[in-house]
Amino acid sequence: MKQRYAALTRDLDWTPSYVDEEKLFPYTRFEGIKVNDWAAWEDPFRLTVDSYYKYQAEKDKRLYAVIDSFAQGQGHLSLSDASYINAMKLFIQGVTPIEYAANRHFSFLARHYNGPGPRFAALCQSVDELRHTQTEAHTLSAYNKYYGGFHSWPKQFDRVWYLSVPKSFIEDAMASGPFEYLIAVSFSFEYLLTNLLFVPFMSGASFNGDVPTMTFGFSAQSDESRHMTLGLEAIKFLLEQDEANVPIIQKWIDKWFWRGYRLVSLIAAMLDYMLPKKVMSWKESFELYFEEQMLEGLFKDLEFYGIRPPADVAVAIAEKEHYSHQAYWTLYQYSYAAGFTTTIPDAEHLDWLSAQYPDTFDKYYRPLWEKAAKIEADGGRFFNTGLPQLCQVCQLPMLFTEVDDPEVVAVRDTVFEGERYHFCSDGCARIFADEPEKYVQAWLPVHQILQGSCGGPTLPEVLAWYGFQDGDSGEYVGSADQIDWQQWHSDEPVRS
């Protein structure tokens, strides 16, 4: 089997004779990474193409059987509550397009790595990412028949303000060199942070009766394991090739941990606020999947190569008490311009948050929600109708606070070529300072709205340009989803 595997992967490589190697592989030199022996690459996938497709086809048969059964049995009515659907709207709007972008770029890398080992690994991951895009879209398409907000997600990914956060992350990675992309996606995201994305989402699906999404999660889990293995192999391969690679890779780890960490702020909000039946808090998830597994495990091993934990990891640890609350409070304020609805936590939910965050929630965040509930009880709804200032790098609104003072918004700024740029943190400011020419080109949604590039100057024109339909945005209470949900579960006649 080992010989057959080698014959169908490594032995298909050849040494170019009539084209100079630098012209054949033009992208693997400009970053300063030195590779002395491409043959030292250990293949993380260890599958031939024919066995890979057979294996994936068996998983697809099981997944689509579950999807069909769920759809035919009106399974959407077995969810814990229609408000759970908002988490899945956020998933298909923000995660699925990243999968497709990763498919595109891994296929690009499958052509442009010098060595046959990483080329074949990139090919397999490219196919994995395309499969995930398709299965996620097919899994969630059943809900599109009954609930708003699932339509037009590729278009919304390119236009909607909060989706510029994942869009800027993946396009920043795609605009990097081939080795930086491996550290950005395969190591910093797939290995360090993917458990913070996939495990809570799929556990939340299981807890809330979403059988197709849970099944998709199981179907993708073996793929994600290979992707994590690719990330680990990539970093060890590069570190072992030449000592000169170490400082370059350390800089990339610092950068892409922070970029990925800011991206998962949307996951933090989902975990603590968007699941009717709770799985675990963001704080618990971060402690388990990052602090224990990565800081206490992986980085202890990487010390051998001279690699230390990411530069801003202490800030991320300090922010875990506040991260989800600040992110969801912002989404709540601006949900009139979002492709999902938001809710005020009820008394039971508030008590759960108090138990999960005993040192901070009652002091800083319960008063905000109690005030919002009073406004709603008096016949109103608290919305922030101003356009927020955005971070030039991560493109999130300025919503996070100083680590040592949760009542002061963190703002950093710098002047580059006569223009002032603003950042949400020291991490984002440092990333900008290292590559200012790249980040001055950022397409910031608020700036584009003010310049008239988003359909027009008024809110209805902007929302139409986003592609939103009636019922996609606003608050859950009184929304079309909630009204339909109640009538579907009522003995009363369904409205016409």
UniProtKB/TrEMBL annotation:
<dbReference type="InterPro" id="IPR007029">
    <property type="entry name" value="YHS_dom"/>
</dbReference>
<dbReference type="GO" id="GO:0004497">
    <property type="term" value="F:monooxygenase activity"/>
</dbReference>
<dbReference type="InterPro" id="IPR003430">
    <property type="entry name" value="Phenol_Hydrox"/>
</dbReference>
<keyword id="KW-0560">Oxidoreductase</keyword>
<dbReference type="InterPro" id="IPR012348">
    <property type="entry name" value="RNR-like"/>
</dbReference>
<feature type="domain" description="YHS">
    <location>
        <begin position="412"/>
        <end position="443"/>
    </location>
</feature>
<dbReference type="Pfam" id="PF04945">
    <property type="entry name" value="YHS"/>
</dbReference>
<keyword id="KW-0503">Monooxygenase</keyword>
<protein>
    <recommendedName>
        <fullName>propane 2-monooxygenase</fullName>
        <ecNumber>1.14.13.227</ecNumber>
    </recommendedName>
</protein>
<dbReference type="InterPro" id="IPR009078">
    <property type="entry name" value="Ferritin-like_SF"/>
</dbReference>
<dbReference type="Pfam" id="PF02332">
    <property type="entry name" value="Phenol_Hydrox"/>
</dbReference>
